[in-house]
Amino acid sequence: MIPYRGILLFVAGLGTSLAAGWIGLPAVLYERTPQPLQFSHKTHSGTAGMKCEDCHAVRDDGTFSGIPALAKCAECHAEPMGTTAAEKQFVEKYVKTNREVPWHVYSRQPDNAHFSHANHVKLGKVACETCHGGHGKTETLRPFERNRISGYSRDIWGPSLARISSSGRQGMKMDDCMSCHKERGVSDSCLDCHK
């Protein structure tokens, strides 16, 4: 009877340690930083009827604008249009002082990777939600989570370290790109993305 008790204690201890590590590792691995101010994609896409490309456009030369410059926002927000404290802060602190907002970029790719939004959005007709999930329908901005080891955003890996997610979006790792290309019948060369 005694040997079974030792084995049971060992298995219970091992299981508890693994569970604690699995739950605790993300808290230790990722540094969470709030965005400088809140922004409602839902208000802009719903109430204002804007599309992703109204602010996040592909330029004529094929490059992607990324987060819009302050001048783009100031076209509509020279004065607050709504009643939120975040919008008032945005206008007072950034628009009126002509100071760019120091946004934390969720999806910055590694330096050795090249990603063309023009090829994917314009030619491949890939919806923004395919890679960015439901980010365009959010009321607030979640904290930026930076991996303390690699320095990259958690969005590159995806919402779950186990790669098990109920969101449908896994991340933006090379395997995710290759799986999508395979599903769409697109052939790859290493130099297509790594330059």
Describe the overall structure:
With 195 residues, the protein is mostly helical. The chain is built from ten helices and two strands; from the N terminus they run αβααααααβααα. The protein has helices at residues 2-29, 41-47, 52-55, 70-74, 85-95, 117-123, 128-132, 154-157, 174-184, 190-193; strands spanning 30-33, 144-147. A two-stranded antiparallel sheet has the order 1-2. The longest helix has 28 residues, at 2-29. The model has no long low-confidence stretch (mean pLDDT 85).
Write the layout of secondary structure elements.
Layout: H1 2-29, E1 30-33, H2 41-47, H3 52-55, H4 70-74, H5 85-95, H6 117-123, H7 128-132, E2 144-147, H8 154-157, H9 174-184, H10 190-193
Antiparallel strand pairs: 1-2
What's this model, at a glance?
With 195 residues, the protein is mainly alpha-helical.
Low-pLDDT segments, ≥5 res: none
Radius of gyration over alpha carbons? 21 Å
Q: What portion of the residues fall into strands of 2 or more residues?
A: under 5%
The number of helical segments is 10
Helix/strand-derived category reads: mainly alpha
Shape by Cα distribution: globular
Describe the structure using short key phrases.
single chain, 195 residues, mainly alpha, two-stranded antiparallel sheet, 10 helices, 2 strands, 44% helix
